[in-house]
Design goal:
Blueprint (H helix, E strand, L loop, with lengths): L5 E10 L2 E11 L4 E6 L5 H9 L6 E6 L2 E2 L10 E4 L11 H11 L4 H14 L15 H13 L5 E5 L7 H18 L2 E5 L3 H7 L2 E6 L2 E6 L1 H6 L4 H6 L4 E8 L2 E4 L4 E2 L3 E2 L6 E7 L5 E2 L5 E12 L3 E7 L7 E6 H7 L6 E6 L5 E4 L1
Parallel strand pairs: 3-8, 3-9, 6-7, 7-8, 14-21
Antiparallel strand pairs: 1-2, 1-4, 4-5, 9-10, 11-12, 11-15, 12-13, 15-21, 16-20, 17-18, 17-20, 18-19
Helix pairs in contact: 2-3, 2-4
The chain binds adenosine-5'-triphosphate and magnesium ion.
Length: 353
C-alpha cells in the first residue's frame, strides 16, 4: 500500500471539558479535493486549525509524507489555512495584501509581481489591485483572501467556508476556478462547506462530521446514494422518511402495505424503523415495488424541476417527490389532486427509528 500523503491519526481536541474533536482518523491522498461537511459546532474549524498548527492537539498525530508535523509551528508546515473569518490588512491595497506572504518568504521582487498579477487574473480583480479592503464588497474581499492563500502554493490548502460570502453565480464560477487551480498547482485541498451541493460537485471525497467524529467518508455518489446512517441520509440532500414496522427482515408501512428494501441498515431490529427514499426516486404510476397514494398539498417550482408535497397516510410530514420539467408538462400536477407514486426496492433504505 502506498503511504498516505496527509495522515490524520486518532486526533483529539479538548477545550477544558469540551471534546471538540473526538478521535478523527483520516488518510488524504496527494492532490485530493476533500470536503468536510457537518452541522455548526461539529468540530470542522477546530480540525483545520490543528492541521495548520494554530491549535495544539490533545491526542493523536498528524503526518505529511510519513513525518509528524504535529509539533511544528504554523509557518514551518507546508499547509496554509484560509480562515472562516479572514482578515485582510486594512492599510494595504489588494495587490499588497496578496504579495505580503510571498515577501515574507523573501521571494525575488519580479517573481512576487508576476505571481500576484497571475492570481489577480484568476480571481478577476485585476482592475481593483490598487484598492483598499474597505473599498471592496464582501464577495470581493473573500476572493482576495482566497488569492492570498493560493498565491503561496502550499502543499495543503485548508479552506474554511471559502465561498460563503459569494452570490450563487459567482460561487459556481469560483467552484470551477478552484478545481482548475487545484489541478494546475497540484495542491491538496481540504474544504469546509455548509453547502452540500458544493461538496457533491467539487470534492473527490466527502466526510460528514458529527459531534467531533467522522460519521461517513466516501466519494460524493456513495455518500448520497448509500448513506450508512439515518443522520447521513438526512444531512445530505432531501430524504423522505416513512415509519415502518420491521419483522424478521420484512417491513410494513403504516397502512399495512409491504415495503421492500435493498439497503437495510445493520442496526435495524424488530419493531419500529424508518424507510427512506429520495424525492427523485419516486415516480408517478405503478412501476416500482413500493407504493403510496396521497394528495398534492403544495408545488414548489424550481425551473428545472418541480417538488411536489404530498400528504399521505404513510407519514405525518408530507412526502416530497421531484418531477422533471418534461414529466410535469405531461402530468400537469395541481394542488388538491390525488396522486399515486411508486419506487423501487433498490432505492429504499431502512434505518432504525
Ligand atoms: N477556543 C475554544 N474554547 C472553547 N471551546 C471551543 C473553542 N473553539 C471551539 N470550541 C467548541 O468546540 C466545538 C467545535 O467548534 P468548531 O468551531 O470546530 O465547529 P465548526 O464545526 O467549525 O462549526 P461552524 O460550522 O459553526 O463553523 C464547539 O462546541 C465550540 O463551541
Ligand atoms: Mg467553523
Amino acid at each position: 500500500m502506498t503511504q498516505a500523503f496527509l495522515s490524520i491519526q486518532n486526533v483529539e481536541k479538548y477545550f477544558a471539558t469540551v471534546r471538540a474533536v473526538a478521535g478523527v482518523s483520516l488518510d488524504i491522498r496527494e492532490n485530493e479535493f476533500f470536503a468536510l461537511l457537518g452541522a455548526s459546532g461539529s468540530g470542522k474549524t477546530t480540525l483545520l486549525r490543528m492541521l495548520a498548527g494554530f491549535e495544539d492537539i490533545s491526542g493523536g498525530d498528524i503526518l505529511i509524507e510519513g513525518t509528524s508535523i504535529a509539533k511544528l509551528p504554523p509557518n514551518q508546515r507546508p499547509v496554509n489555512l484560509m480562515f472562516q473569518s479572514y482578515a485582510l490588512f486594512p492599510h494595504m491595497t489588494v495587490a499588497q495584501n496578496i504579495a505580503y506572504g510571498l515577501e515574507m518568504e523573501k521571494l525575488p521582487k519580479n517573481e512576487v509581481t508576476a505571481r500576484v498579477a497571475d492570481i489577480l487574473k484568476v480571481i478577476q480583480l485585476g482592475h481593483l489591485a490598487g484598492r483598499k479592503p474597505d473599498q471592496l464588497s464582501g464577495g470581493q474581499r473573500q476572493r482576495v483572501a482566497l488569492a492570498r492563500a493560493l498565491v503561496k502554493r502550499p502543499k495543503v490548502l485548508l479552506l474554511d467556508e471559502p465561498l460563503g460570502a459569494l452570490d450563487k453565480k459567482l460561487r459556481s464560477e469560483m467552484q470551477l476556478e478552484l478545481k482548475r487551480l487545484q489541478h494546475q498547482f497540484g495542491i491538496t485541498f481540504i474544504m469546509v462547506t455548509h453547502d452540500q451541493e458544493e461538496a457533491l460537485v467539487m470534492a473527490d471525497r466527502i466526510a460528514i462530521m458529527k459531534d467531533g467524529a467522522l460519521l461517513q467518508v466516501g466519494p460524493p455518489k456513495e455518500i448520497y446514494e448509500l448513506p450508512r446512517s439515518r443522520f447521513a441520509a438526512d444531512f445530505i440532500g432531501v430524504m423522505n422518511f416513512l415509519p415502518v414496522t420491521a419483522n424478521s427482515g420484512a417491513f410494513q408501512a403504516r397502512d399495512g402495505s409491504p415495503i421492500t428494501a435493498t439497503h437495510v441498515n445493520d442496526a435495524v431490529g424488530t419493531g419500529a424503523a424508518v424507510a427512506a427514499v429520495r424525492p427523485e426516486r419516486l415516480s408517478i404510476g405503478e412501476g416500482g415495488e413500493n407504493r403510496l397514494s396521497g394528495t398534492v398539498s403544495a408545488i414548489a417550482y424550481h425551473g428545472l424541476d418541480l417538488l411536489l408535497h404530498i400528504t399521505t397516510e404513510l407519514s405525518d410530514t408530507p412526502v416530497i417527490a421531484r418531477m422533471t420539467a418534461d414529466v410535469a408538462d405531461r402530468h400537469r400536477p395541481e394542488t388538491g389532486q390525488p396522486i399515486a407514486l411508486s419506487w423501487s426496492a433498490r432505492d429504499t433504505h431502512i434505518f432504525p427509528a
